[in-house]
Design a protein that fits this description.
Layout: E1 8-14, H1 15-23, E2 27-28, H2 42-53, E3 61-68, E4 71-78, H3 80-90, E5 104-110, E6 128-134, H4 145-152, E7 155-161, H5 166-176, H6 184-190, H7 196-203, H8 206-210, H9 216-220, H10 223-236, H11 245-255, H12 258-274, H13 277-280, H14 289-301, H15 306-314, E8 324-327, E9 332-335, H16 337-341, H17 349-369, H18 386-393, H19 414-425, H20 431-444, H21 450-454, H22 456-468, H23 472-482, H24 493-510
Parallel strand pairs: 2-4, 3-7
Antiparallel strand pairs: 1-7, 3-4, 5-6, 8-9
Amino acid sequence: MRLIRDKVKEETWMCKKVCDMAERGELRSDYFLQRDIDQWEHSDRDNFIVTMLLNEDFDALKICEEITPTGVTLWIIDGLQKYTYISDFKAGGFKLGANIDPNEITYQEARRDKDGIFIRNDNGDIMYDEVTFSLKNKGYADLPPKLKENFDDCPVKIVKHLDCTPEEMARHLRRYNRGAKMKPAQILLTRMLNVGRRVKALAEHDFWSDRANFTPTVHKNGKINQIIAEIVMALNFWDNWTKNARKIGEYLNENATDEMFNSARELLDHLMTVTSLDTSEALFTTKNSLIWIMFFDRCMKNGVKDEIFKEFLNNFNTYTDVSVEIPHDDETLITTWNDLDASKSTKDRVVIEDKLFILHTLLEKFVTDNGLVAIEEETENVANEEENNISELEVTEETEQPVKTDSSKEDFSDDELIGFVMEKTSLNVDSDDIELYKDIIEDSVKVTSSLYQNCYKALIAVVAKACNEEKDQEFEEWVKVYQNSNEEYSSNDGVNFRFMQRDFENYRVKNGNAA
C-alpha cells in the first residue's frame, strides 16, 4: 500500500519575506493558466494596502508546490492580485488615491530631542507622541519609518499545496475562483492544460497591439485567449466547430499540435506585412477577427496576391452595403455585410460561413471593378476562377441551416437576461457570462422545441446556476431529456424557472450528481 501523506500546509510569512522570495524567483506569479494581473479597481487595490498598513487580516495566498527535475517551484495559484499589489507598492509602482478608508492613520512615535536621542520621563520611560499621517497620494517611499515597518512586518497567511501535479494545480485554480469567479474566457484557459502556454504566447503577438482594435480590457479579462482558441479551432478543425468555449478548450487540449500554433503564428506574422493600423483596427475587432483571419488564410491558400488583399482591406468600407446572394439549400439569402454583421449570432457556424461567402464575393467584385489580377499564377481574374475558389467558401450540404421560428431569445436583450438571472439566482453576472449561457443552450436545446420557444429566459437562469456550481455538463445531459417531456409551460418566466430548477436538482440527485 502506497503512503498517502497530508498535502496541505499552512504558514504565516511576513510581507517582506513574500517580496524577497518573489524577487529571488523562489515564488512565481506567472503560472500560465492564471488570469492577468491588475484585475481590481484602483480603489479596491488602494484599500487593500491600507488593510496591510493597519496590520488587519485578509485572505491567505494559496500556493502550489511543483517538484520538477530541476528543483522545487512555488506557484501563486490564488491571491495573485494581492501579491502583485504588495510587491508593486513596495517597489514604488503606485501611490494610494483619495478613495481610501480610513484616509489617515494615527500611531504612536517615540519622542526624540534635536539630536535624535529618546526623551524619557522622570521614571526613565520613553515618552511617546500621537501622530496622525495622511495616506492620500502616498507611496511606500513617502511613508514614515513606523508605517514602513507595519507594511514590511504585516503577516501574510500562506496555504501551501505540496507536490502538486499540473492537473491538480489547474483544479485548485478553478476551485479557488468559484467565489470571486473568473470570467468564462479566463476559465477557458484552465481547460487547456496541454496547450495553454501556446495560447498565451499567441495572445502576446504584436498583431493584437499594433494592428487589431483590442483594448487593454480584452487582455485583462482573458477574452483574447478565447479568440486565439477559436482561431486555432476554426483553421484546423472546422468540421468539429462549436461556439461553446469550454468545448473548444477541451477539444484543443486533446487534439491541437505545436505545428498548428506555429502555423497560426506565421499567419499573424504574414498579416502584419499586409495590414496597417489605419485600416485593420476597424476590421479586426473582437467580434470579427476570427472571420478575417479565416478569410485571409483561405485567400493565401488560393493564391491571392498580398497587394490585392491589402487594397481590398483599404477599400472594404465602400462595399459593406453591397447586396450579396448567398445560396442555401432551402432558399437564397440576399443580404449585405453590414446587415449580417448586425446579427447577434456571431459564432454560429452558418453565420460564419455566410460572412466568408460575402467577403469572397466582395473581393471578386473589387477585383473586377478595378480590372485587377488577384491570383499569383498567370490566369484570368478572380471572377473567372469562381468554380475553383467558391468551393472553399460556399455553404455545403453539411452546414447547419438557420431554423425559422417565431423567435424567442432575440426578444430578450442581454441587460434583460442579466437582470432576470440576478433576480432569480442572486448571481453577479455580466454580458460575457450571458454569452456563455447562450452557447450552452444552443448546443444542447433544439431551437424548434417548445422549451426553447417558451422558456428561453428561464433556461438562461438554470444554466447560470449550473455553471456557477460547475454542473454545466449535467445540465446538458438533463435538458436533452427534459425538452422531450411534453411539459406545459407557464407564461410566467419565474414559475418556469422554479419548476425547471427543481426538476434539474431531482435529476442530479437521482443520478448521484447532487452537490
